[in-house]
Structure prediction request, 927 residues.
Amino acid sequence: MSDDIAVEARNTVKVYGAGDSAVRALDDVSVTIRKGEFFTLLGPSGCGKTTLLRCIAGFETPTSGEILLSGRDITADPPNKRPVNTVFQSYALFPHLSVARNIGFGLEMMGRAKGDVARTVEKMLALVKLEAFADRKPQQLSGGQQQRVALARALAPEPEVLLLDEPLSALDLKLRKEMQSELKRLQTETGITFVFVTHDQEEALTMSDRIGVMRSGKLLQVGGPREIYNHPVNRFVADFIGETNFLTAKAEGGGFVLASGDRVEAPGERANAGEMTLAVRPEQVRIEAEGAPGAMHATVTETTYFGTDTYCHVRLADGTVIVARLQSPPSGDVGLAPGARVGVRFAEGAVQVLGD
Amino acid sequence: MSIATEAGRRRERARNGWLLASPALLLLLFAASGPLLIVAVYSFLTPGDYGNVVWDFSADGWFRVFLERDIFDGTVSAADAHLTIFWRSLKLSLATTAITFALGLPTAWFIATRPPRERAMWLFLITIPFWTNLLIRTFAIMEVIRNEGILNNVLIGLGIIDTPLQIVFTETAVLIGMAYVYLPLMVLPLFAAIDRFDFKLIEAGYDLYASRWRVLRRVILPIIKPGIVAGSILVFVPSLGAYVTPRVLGGGKQMMIGNFIELQFGQGRNWPLGAALSMLLLFIVMVALLIYVRSTTREAPHG
Amino acid sequence: MARRKSFSVTALPGFRSIAVAVFVLLYMPIVTLVVYSFNGGSSIALWGGFSLRWYEVAWGNDVVQSAALRSVVIATCAALIATTVATMAALGTTRRGKFPGQTVIYVMINQPLMVPEIVTAVALLIFFAAIKVATGIQGLGYLILAHAAFCVPFAYLPIRARLEGMDLSLETAAADLYASPWATFRRVTLPLMAPGIVAGAMLAFVISLDDVIITEFVKSAGQDTLPTYMLGQLRRAVTPEVNAISTVLLAVTVLLLTAFFLLTRKRG
Prediction:
């Protein structure tokens, strides 16, 4: 069973400082990352995702708990003894070494033969398409090229796991998109386990096999992109990943009753009968003609044009505002002026019941 | 049109700049740079009987820097006494540079890796000796290593030796003294270089399987090289021209070029020889500075 | 739970021990020197109880008194001259872009930092001796000018640093608010650069006060400063009087340096 587990963190705790000023950067985190998967740690800054990454790399030692690599406890190993490599946020390319020497550095340190190093470096340069830049110094390259050197350097020693610490954050939007698919390609081609840290939910959703969402040192939810997006475990996850309408409701006879008095059907168990929070993604909100059967009565308060989409804010009878994301028609005008009376309906299976 | 006004503005800026700098330049020309030219001229004159010079051209001053003529048979041979002094100056200056580097690198590293609030204090502790009178520091180290000084008292007290070690008035004393007084000159530029150093690069080094020693040799030292060169020049140059430290700790026996120059203007009464020696020293220092400037301009793009 | 030894990225083997040893070695001689200035006995090696005796001896010594006064007079005059010319030079060479010859000015101003002091000392000895013979003018003026010259770079550097850190738009704003160039300089530029000027003056003062070599070569008979007096004393049997003088000089240096650091640190 442990054969297909690349990294495992067991009850990992990391405390900085002591006494009253102590900060629990990692609060009892346990996670398993499978071999060959693209795993993303997602969360806002200060959530502990980078700390967990640095614990795996060996730059931080957990206060308690273990880090296992392919089933072997490596908690006490220094970073230079771990078959794990990092792509740093700032790239950390050696300014005094050429691109080729940067890429070959790890292999040299492992004591590989010169010819061996040269061959691997060549292969890596081809992999990241930088053959023409082998003799340049890192500071003579553009941001995107530096990024690729950093990747090649970390991949060259063929680590069991590649750790990526927000590597795309320094790039502009267009380049970031390019590098996202590039990263995905490299991961598929090399088959190496990637552990990727980011605060960008879109990046996480598009690239990952599985995502771990973190907040305040805790791991809240682990799952595939669809699962995380469509079945968030709590309000934070739902809010952090994508946009969401939160609605307060009471369970009643197999469904829910909103504060406005409207009835909503939702799947799943509901043990308590008290107030609960429902979540609906804006793209799952349908706007229909007023009085359509089964639709809630609402008034349009605001429409905002976003190019491909138009956001439409509607108000229910009790004042609750719901945001709907509509595809913009060819004319660009969805034809909903503020004050218009409309009917609102949630798509089938779109309503999620949140844990807290 | 706009080019013309831009050029005009540049001209005015240059005129104002030179005008404002001129009092400083005149002062320096009068009491620093200008007199150096006179030294060059004096090195080609004939010594006067009671010091000073006679205005007759002579290359004898330069000749006697390296060679001596036997007073009886007029044969020319190498001036061994002078060469001994040159060799001692060079040897002690290089040794001082090496010692201050070996001690200064860990010290600068230590300061640069302190928490920011503590760092200013450690830096201040290095700066105080840096600005303290050289004579006082030389005197202070002499009190420690002299025959009745603490070092000998402690060693005798511990029963390690019976009779005091004769350190003062030896080459060792001059070396200890110079290393002591010039150490801050090595630490400060090293600190400046390490302070600019991106510690993520060390993480990258360890991440790529380098040992601590290899991180030091392959990552840290190459990147802080400009600081190493700067520190070495800052120590080597004043060491080579040292006057106070060899005079006090060498007791007149361990003369270096600086003391030898002074001798020519005192008891030696050979101003042209002294002037020639000064020019030689200046030349060596300028060569060292040139090497420094060239190495920093080449390293500049790496920061 | 067992304490885990964490991997420190910045730690290098033995560096910490060497650094601590360096600080101890750096301060041990200075502290010893200060301690023995309070020695009741006449030796700089044997402790004879605490006393201010040697401070009294030094204070009562006419030669020391006049040397101290001369040191202060020279340092004050030299610092004033050096700071004035350095301020002007800094104003002319910073902020408003490069101009032809700027490097020449820069190299000339920093020349005293590059030429070995013994060489400058020799040059000044020769030059001033010639002037003295030619004009018959004697006095402290030679020492003051020599000191002022080598103090220029020390005054110049902090002033320049201060100026470069200053925002040009402040002066533009003043001009926009109808201030004449002179009023802008007096009301905006000068007050803003004042800490740099004071810092530069203090460094120049310390440098002049501590000078040995140039003074030793330039001074005429009876023009000893404290450092040259001490240098002369070191040839004879040394008494703690030298320690006492050193301690006072040391205290002045530390005081001025502390003030300098506080002044330059406020910038942030």
Observations:
- The first helix of chain C runs from residue 15 to 36.
